[in-house]
What does this fold into?
Amino acid sequence: MEDEKAKFLKIFGNIPENLREDIIAVIEEKPYTWNVAYIEIRNDTELGKKILKALKELRII
It folds into this structure.
């Protein structure tokens, strides 16, 4: 999971600020933006783990 986290953080750092409010994942019928994903993933929450899994399945990371 740490490898996916590192990949996400690298990608996030290169995303222009105006795109960070775009939705990148839908978990349990709730949309999540780059910014929310960053907070959840950085804090190692359960939601962050679900978001990482979804992003990996979507081949974003």
Q: What stands out?
A: The first helix runs from residue 2 to 14. The chain has a mean pLDDT of 96. The first strand starts at residue 23 and ends at 27.
